[in-house]
Specification:
The protein is mostly helical. The chain has 16 helices and four strands. Strand 2 and strand 3 form a beta hairpin. 48% of the residues are buried.
Length: 491
């Protein structure tokens, strides 16, 4: 989940708050993210649905309920992407908070297959509106604070999820609380997040629909900074640097304005769509960008499937009625170790342009092996360990992919690219769900499903291994030819 911010609206001019003004919005955004992610009942969702509270069957849960999330997420993603920019983030953040409340209220009191399917639709709306959380803060703070506020907000959500998982495990294992009580805590937490979101300041600009234009100075002029006499480049877009992100999309929006009289320009939907199409063609014309994006889309599809149905696999390996499950502890450990791996990758010095595809192939093979072990070794502790390895490796790779995509972009269209990659992942996941999971398709059992997911990651590994070896050999030949060319040109 994500986070929100702010008590004081930015100036009417559309300028971002300066100095310490960024602290309050960021703090509120982090509070929102923490409480929205603090859901101790989530690691025990499958057990709750199969238990006496809902009394649903395995076929209903795995083949008829869980697929609804995939379909709703896919359908809502693009409209929400446009609505987020048009409404300027805060209303969509409030919609997300309200959707979380509806989801957990229904989880407590809704009964029957159809009601729980509606619940999954609202949870799909929750995940589709996450883009508003990741985009909002960049319209409020200055450019030089992007990295700092990104780390704060992302850390808040990870800490919230980890604390929620640990609390859920302790309350179930030590205090013997019912799963219904855990859902009450989750509902309370997301309600606090929703209340926090109301205090966010309303941004005055956005990327497409609400642009702030300078009336006196063109974008490419150099102007004199009267305070220190230094000449500065008045094109903030050229100085923009990519921020760190995770499966979730963030877009820098805070363009520094030097005009005394900024004016808002509203763009109509047809112009926005044409601009999006031009940017799409431009962004994906780069081979490195295309390579990392393809891996992002295909691997995220498989990741979503494994994450969605892992609890079901654990339930089949060892039913919770006969065993004290540790889902919460496993989720907490995998999140913490994944965060450590993500932090450590920033210090790894690798020529990703040369070895990136080979690395994707090898690590994808590790993911495939982890999923295969989960499926074939019917031991709950082996399943837990394999799941932790699976999540760590994926979080590591998606971080590298995110950074590589951002560094290969020549324009500030991070949200567009990440949104398209996620949309493709969801489209693939929808197809996979329809064929493999949905009762209207093959409706395969959980063990057969995971064998297919393991094979899926193995196929990804094979494709990138072949492509990576080809790229390495091509680069090696190019390096060999360079000395011979220089020698031939010497008289």
């Amino acid at each position: 989940m994500e986070a929100r911010a702010g008590l004081r609206a930015p100036p009417a001019s559309g300028r971002a708050p300066r100095g310490s003004c960024w602290v309050l919005p960021t703090a509120l955004l982090c509070l929102y993210g923490f409480f929205a992610s603090l859901r101790p009942s989530e690691p025990f969702l499958t057990r709750y649905l199969l238990g006496p509270d809902k009394n649903l069957t395995e076929t209903q849960v795995f083949n008829e309920i869980y697929p609804v999330w995939t379909y709703s997420y896919l359908v809502l993603l693009f409209p929400v992407f446009l609505a987020t920019d048009y409404l300027r983030y805060k209303p969509v953040i409030l919609l997300q908070g309200l959707s979380l409340i509806v989801t957990w209220f229904m989880l407590l009191y809704a009964q029957g297959l159809l009601a729980i399917q509606f619940l999954e639709f609202f949870y799909g709306l929750v995940t589709a509106t996450e883009i508003a959380y990741y985009s909002y803060i960049y319209s409020i703070v200055d450019l030089n604070l992007y990295q700092k506020v990104t780390s704060y907000c992302r850390s808040a959500t990870l800490v919230g999820y980890t604390v929620g998982s640990i609390c859920g495990q302790v309350l179930v294992s030590v205090a013997s609380w019912s799963l219904f009580s855990l859902n009450v805590i989750s509902l309370t937490s997301v309600s606090v997040a929703f209340a926090t979101a109301w205090f966010l300041p309303m941004p005055q600009k956005s990327l497409f629909f609400h642009l702030v234009l300078r009336s006196q100075v063109s974008r490419e002029m150099k102007v004199l900074d009267c305070k220190n006499g230094a000449v500065i480049q008045d094109d903030a877009a050229l100085k923009r640097v990519p921020g760190w992100e995770d499966i979730e999309s963030k877009v820098p929006l805070n363009v520094e304005e030097h005009s005394a009289e900024p004016q808002e320009q509203k763009v109509d939907i047809s112009k926005v769509l044409k601009e999006l199409w031009r940017d799409f063609l431009h962004c994906y014309s780069s081979r490195p960008m295309l390579c990392w994006s393809v891996w992002w889309a295909f691997s995220t599809c498989g990741y979503f499937q494994v994450i969605n149905y892992t609890q079901g696999l654990w339930e089949m390996v060892l039913p919770s009625q006969s065993f004290e499950i540790y889902n919460g502890g496993v989720e907490a450990v995998s999140t913490l170790l994944g965060a450590v791996a993500v932090f450590a990758v920033g210090y790894v010095k690798v020529s990703w342009a040369i070895w990136g595809e080979v690395a994707l192939a090898l690590f994808s093979l590790i993911i495939a092996a982890a999923v295969y072990v989960m499926d074939t070794v019917r031991n709950i502790w082996v399943c837990y360990v394999s799941y932790v390895i699976f999540r760590i490796v994926y979080m590591l790779l998606i971080t590298i992919a995110t950074f590589q995509i951002a560094t290969n972009l020549s324009m500030e269209r991070y949200a567009l690219v990440f949104g398209i990659n996620t949309f493709i992942a969801l489209a693939l996941q929808t197809l996979l769900t329809l064929i493999v999971v949905d009762s209207s398709g093959l409706g395969l059992n959980i063990f057969t499903q995971f064998m297919i997911y393991a094979s899926y990651f193995a196929a990804i590994s094979l494709v990138f291994l072949v492509s990576g070896i080809h790229s390495v050999m091509k680069n090696y030949r190019r390096q060999e030819e360079m000395p011979s060319r220089s020698t031939a040109s010497t008289p």
